[in-house]
Amino acid sequence: MPPGTGDVALSLQQFLPRSEIFVVTTPQPAAVRVAQRSALAAKKLKLPVRGVVENMSAFVTPGGERYPIFGSGGGAQLATELGVELLAELPLTMALREGGDHGTPVVVHSPSDLASESLRALVDKLESLGPVRRYRSDLKVQAR
Q1: Does residue 127 fall inside a structural domain?
Q2: pLDDT tens per residue, the chain (144 residues)?
Q3: Can you state the angle between helices 74-82 and 29-44, rounded to 10 degrees?
């Protein structure tokens, strides 16, 4: 869910009442405060907040050096405040930026990049969570 005042959460609740929310933030305090407001708006609308993803957790050089250019710990702090799990800390890498410039997902053009590995780990984590509510027990998600 993108940052904002809650308009997105309100629209989701109206059009997709069974939505589940995953809050995405960056590490810096200002971004965390905005993301927190979005999460609280979702909770007021009875949309379950399932977890937090911290994007751009650090810039990682091709040599593996990490630079927390946007600060650190914001995603973990927000997850703690919301009482949910921090699902991932996604790094900013050159391959991720280059893929964005060309419109090619990093997991396609640079599958061994740290950003690709982090995104695949996030997908695995999301799959393992399963739905918070099950409306029809006869419907099953097929493994890939």
Answers
A1: no
A2: 555 555 766 676 677 767 788 999 999 999 999 999 888 888 888 888 999 999 999 999 999 999 999 999 999 999 999 999 999 999 999 999 999 999 999 999 999 999 999 999 999 999 998 877 656 666 666 666
A3: 20
Structural domain span for residue 76: 7-93
Q: How many separate domains does the chain show?
A: 1
Domain containing residue 16: CATH number:
3.40.50.300
Q: Which residue in 109, 108, 6, 100 sits closest to 55, CA to CA?
A: 100
Distance between CA atoms of 48 and 42, rounded to whole angstroms? 7
Residue 98 has phi, psi (to 5 degrees) of -65, -40
Q: Is residue 78 part of a domain?
A: yes
Q: Which of 25, 76, 20, 26 is nearest to 43 (CA)?
A: 20
In a domain, 61, yes or no: yes
Whether 123 maps to a domain, the answer reads: no
Phi-psi region of 17 (alpha: psi -120 to 50; beta: other; left: phi over 0): alpha
